[in-house]
Design brief:
Layout (H helix, E strand, L loop, with lengths): L14 E9 L2 E6 L3 E6 L5 E5 L5 E6 L2 E6 L6 E5 L7 E5 L14 E3 L2 E6 L2 E6 L4
Amino acid sequence: MITAAEAYFSRNLKNHHGGMVLVDGYLYGSFDPGILTCIEFKTGKVMWEDRRPGKGSIMYADGRLYCRNEGARGTVFLVDADPKKYEERGRFDQPDRSKEQAWPHPVVANGKLYIRDQDVLLCYDLKAK
């Protein structure tokens, strides 16, 4: 028989639709109302919060978080997966944006970043110098 017990409860884990990723014992997610948050998974302790990426989808690859804002510009943020602090490494606004809210997660595969918006698929070479 398996039993479950609540380890902790946190109002800081209000995931809306953007998902979350667990990296080295820390949970990263864009929690409602649009705050990128790093939480220690074992204890629920909030390590940091930042509003800049806003609400949207998130994925992890190669030590970095790829955060895509759901808004009109579809801004993509590159953030270190570091529980000590929010460290932004870059950002860009998505070209050919439909101007509709969009929630598809960014995908990184074989050195390429894929961003989908309605009937548009963008591909960026992450290995380019």
